[in-house]
Each structure stands twice: as structure tokens, then as C-alpha cells.
From TrEMBL:
The keyword Lipid biosynthesis does not apply. It is found in: Cell membrane. GO terms for cellular component: plasma membrane. InterPro entries: GPCR_Rhodpsn (IPR000276), GPCR_Rhodpsn_7TM (IPR017452). The lineage of its organism: Eukaryota, Metazoa, Spiralia, Gnathifera, Rotifera. The chain crosses the membrane at residues 35-57, 69-91, 131-154, 160-181. One of its GO terms (molecular function) is G protein-coupled receptor activity. Its main location: membrane. It is a multi-pass membrane protein. Residues 1-182 form the G-protein coupled receptors family 1 profile domain. This is G-protein coupled receptors family 1 profile domain-containing protein. The keyword Disulfide bond does not apply. It comes from Adineta steineri. Pfam families: 7tm_1 (PF00001).
Amino acid sequence: MMCNLQVALAIVEASFNRLCSIVYHTKLFLRTKKWATICIVSQWTTGIILTIPNISFNDSSCDDQLWKAIYRFVMIVIVPSIICLMNNMMIFKYVRSSTNRVQTSLENAKNNAQQHQHLSRRDLHLLRHMIVMFCIFIAGWSPIYICAAIGSAISITSTIASVFIILAELSLLIDISNLFLYNHELRRYYREKICHRH
């Protein structure tokens, strides 16, 4: 559960950081290593705390308990979905309000409108990208947890379970590849490191 939960929490953390960088773009603290450390520590702490109920009742005879399957589904799929949805809605609301904001100075109105339009286009593109990534995660991981939750009531063949496992792993691979391909700064950093060594 811990690994899957950390993936969901990482996507939640990314959406939260994007919200902070857009809404509080003037706060220099959000660009420091201290802030990055706080985010990483809070993500791992949350993951450990949310895993405790699953570990505490980890009895070999109780592996197929329904409440554990429902708990995993809620913690890995439902709660992160709600948090990401809220973060993305706040980003969208902020970008939309900043785009529609009326400027008092006629002289700067044209320049400000262009800046807001550029900000809006860029941020909405990123927002779309984050939503697509999260949908890939949900589509990949939901079936396996739903299967585990209803497995006691409905018989599911090992072939279907294997397909769900492959789907989950594929969604994770797509998300990781997508992050790497979309992050131009990270690609440039790796290119410089690799070229600098040779």
C-alpha cells in the first residue's frame, strides 16, 4: 500500500505546489530548498500515518478483510482525487479571475491583457496536463482496488486480476515518462550533466 499511496500523494503534492506557485508567485520561500524539504517530509509523513491502520491489523488470516480493501481504495484513489480536484479548481478560478481583472490604467491595459492572456494560456495548459496525468493514474489504479474491494462478493479470475495489475503498472510508467518528457528544465539538467561528464 505504501508505494501506491506515495504515487498518489506525489501527484497531490505536485498539484498543491502548482497551486502555490501560481497563487503565491511572489513568495520567494516557495522556491527554496527548505520548502522542497518540507513538502517531501510532509508527503512521506502522511504516507506513513495513513499506512498505520493497514499495518496494525496485518494478520495473515485477515488479508481479505473488506474494510482493508475499502480503506486502501479510499486512501489511494478517492481522497487524492478530491484534493487534486479542489487544487485544480482553485488554480482555474485564480487564473480566470486574474485574466478577467479590469485594469485601471488605460496606458498599461494592452500590455497587461497580453500578460494575463499568456499567463492564462500557459497555466491552463499545465492544468490540463496535470488533470490528464491524474486521470491516467486513476484509470490505471482504480480497477485493481475496486477488484480487491468487491473480490469477496464476486469471483474474479486470475487473468482479469493480472490485466488490472499490468494496467496499474502501465499507468505509472506513462505518468513517470510524461513527467520527464514535459519537464524541460529536468531534461536540460540531465543533458548538461551527461554532456559535462564526457
